[in-house]
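step=encode ok
step=design start
structure_in=
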C-alpha cells in the first residue's frame, strides 16, 4: 500500500489561488508571498498583509507564488523606479527597520523582512482595489484562503494597510480567543485626521496584536518628519508583546 501524499499549506494555498484565479476570470496575474515559502513553516513573529498586488500587467520576472531570491520589497524593480526604490518598497523597508529597532532584532530590517510573513490578502492583481473584478467573490476567496493558513501560523504582530484585511483578521482572532474582548486604540498618524488602529487580542505573551496603518503607498508616513513621533508611538504600542 503506497504512502499518502501530503500537501503543504503553501502548496495547497497556491493550488487554491490558481483555481480561483481561473474560475473568477481574473486576467492580470496573481501573487501570494513576497518572501520565501519557508516562512510559512517557521512560525514567524511578524506578518505584513497588504491588500492586493497593483498594476495593469504582471512582469514575468516577478514570481507569483513566493520570492525565493529575497523579499520583493527589496529585490525587485517595480514600475519605473530602480530596484527596491519604489515609494511603497521604501516605506515598507523603513517600517521593518523601525520594527527591528523596537524589537532589538540585531540583523536589521531586511533580515527581519525575510523572516516575516509578507503577503497579499487578496492575491489577484488589479490597477487599484476598487477596480478588482468580481470583488465580492474575490474577497470571499481571500477569507477562505487565510483561515486555514492561520491555523498553521500565528504571528504575534499582524500589520495591515487596508480595512478589509484588518476586519477579517480581527474576526479570526476574536473567534480563536473568544474569552477576551480586544483592547482597541485609535492613534493619530500626524497625517491630518487619518488614524491608525492597534487592537490586542488575548492577554500577556500569548496574545496577538493587530494593526491597521493607512495605505503606505498613498500615506507615506515614513517620508514625513512631522509624522515621525506619531509613527514611533504607534509602533511602540504595536510591539509591546514582541
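sequence_out=
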Amino acid at each position: 500500500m503506497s504512502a499518502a501524499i501530503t500537501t503543504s499549506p503553501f502548496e495547497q494555498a497556491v493550488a487554491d489561488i490558481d483555481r480561483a484565479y481561473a474560475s473568477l476570470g481574473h486576467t492580470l496575474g496573481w501573487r501570494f508571498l513576497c518572501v520565501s515559502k519557508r516562512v510559512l513553516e517557521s512560525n514567524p513573529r511578524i506578518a505584513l498583509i497588504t491588500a492586493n498586488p497593483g498594476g495593469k500587467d504582471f512582469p514575468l520576472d516577478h514570481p507569483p507564488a513566493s520570492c525565493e531570491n529575497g523579499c520583493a520589497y527589496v529585490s525587485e524593480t517595480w514600475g519605473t523606479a530602480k530596484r527596491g526604490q519604489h515609494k511603497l518598497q521604501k516605506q515598507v523597508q523603513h517600517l521593518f527597520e523601525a520594527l527591528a529597532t523596537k524589537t532589538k532584532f540585531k540583523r536589521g530590517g531586511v533580515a527581519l523582512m525575510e523572516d516575516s510573513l509578507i503577503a497579499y490578502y487578496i492575491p489577484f492583481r488589479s490597477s487599484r482595489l476598487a477596480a478588482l473584478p468580481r470583488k465580492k467573490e474575490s474577497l470571499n476567496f481571500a477569507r477562505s484562503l487565510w483561515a486555514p493558513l492561520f491555523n498553521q501560523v500565528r504571528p504575534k504582530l499582524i500589520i495591515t494597510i487596508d480595512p478589509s484585511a484588518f476586519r477579517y483578521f480581527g474576526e479570526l482572532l476574536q473567534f480563536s480567543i473568544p474569552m477576551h474582548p480586544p483592547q482597541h486604540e485609535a492613534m493619530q498618524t500626524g497625517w491630518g485626521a487619518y488614524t491608525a488602529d492597534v487592537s490586542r487580542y488575548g492577554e500577556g505573551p500569548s496574545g496577538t496584536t493587530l494593526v491597521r496603518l493607512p495605505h503606505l503607498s498613498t500615506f507615506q508616513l515614513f517620508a514625513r518628519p512631522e509624522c515621525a513621533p506619531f509613527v514611533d508611538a504607534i509602533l511602540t504600542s504595536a510591539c509591546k508583546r514582541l
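step=design ok
step=annotate ok -> The first helix runs from residue 9 to 23.
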